[in-house]
Amino acid sequence: MHTEVDPHPGPPPTALGTAPHTGFQILVVDDHPLYRAALIGAIATACGDSRFVEADSVSALLSVLEGHAQADLLLLDLNLPDAYGFSALAHLRGTYPGLPVAIVSAMHDRRTVRQALAFGAQGFVSKSADAKTIGRSVQAILRGELVTPETLDAESESEADAGALAVAQRLAQLTPQQFRVFGMLCAGRLNKQIAHDLQITEATVKAHMTAILRKLGANNRTQAALLAGGLAIAPYAIGPQPEGAD
Predict the structure, then answer these.
(1) 87, 171 in Cβ contact below 8 A?
(2) Can you tell me the distance from the alpha carbon of 105 to that of 159, in angstroms, rounded to the nearest whole number?
(3) Of these four, 41, 90, 175, 205, which has the most CB atoms within 10 Å of its CB?
């Protein structure tokens, strides 16, 4: 599900890029509506007449991006049910390299922040920060600055092993629909279940699976899920694969 929000109702805004002072367009992706509202409120106070598009999942975000790929900033919750660790971030950075992505997360330990930066995040905002800090952080990211929680030096070396970075590069090759299928694969869903959820035929799912395995360099679903595990925040984030699903 996604919605568009203008926190300052008024005359219809001019299209992005056609006139000065039109404000920023910011995509906000979080599965908790109350936090999305609070985040939008903090940013709206700091960034004036910005416009917001909300999504509650990665799947919804991929649909949003079909019409909003030129947005000024994407704020992405790291723990979305269908994000599977840093897989969504890696895919987005490869598919939309011109769209700055900042992570917003309650998990802001040093390793998680440094991994996010290694996978291409422009910044990292802690959910525990107060509204003014969040507003200032978003302002800085929109200026092109690299932002991290105050406890971490933004200039410190990012952290991700070469194998995980290689997997991230392969994930960037997936189409949006293939990434949706990949996410369901990571959840351990059967082809027929994926077909039902995406309202496509099982033959189409199998075709997507073939393309996904080829792009990831995997021989079967289990290997693909293991590769995704290299980008997981926690090992249990990737579901076991059903027997005989390959």
Answers:
(1) yes
(2) 17
(3) 90
Sheet of 73-77, strands arranged across: 2-5, 51-55, 25-29, 73-77, 101-105, 123-126
Query: What's the alpha-carbon Rg for the chain, to the nearest Å?
Result: 18
Does position 68 have pLDDT exceeding 60, yes or no?
yes
Task: Burial-class residue 53 by CB neighbours within 10 Å (0-12, 13-18, 19+).
Answer: buried
Helix (H, G, I), strand (E, B) or coil at 187: coil
What is the arithmetic mean of pLDDT over 140-166? 76
Residue type, 51: R
Q: Which of 127, 68, 65, 131 is nearest to 102 (CA)?
A: 127
Q: What is the model's pLDDT at position 73? A: 97
The residue written with tokens 């992706």 in the block is: 29
- In DSSP terms, 75 is beta-bridged to 28, 102
Q: What pLDDT is attached to residue 187?
A: 87
Per-residue confidence (pLDDT) for residue 230, from 0 to 100: 80
Question: For 173-237, which CATH class?
Answer: mainly alpha
Residue spans per domain, the chain: 2-142, 173-237
Give pLDDT tens digits for 1-23.
666 665 555 444 333 333 333 48
Q: Which of 245, 230, 19 is nearest to 119 (CA)?
A: 230
Total-model pTM: 0.79
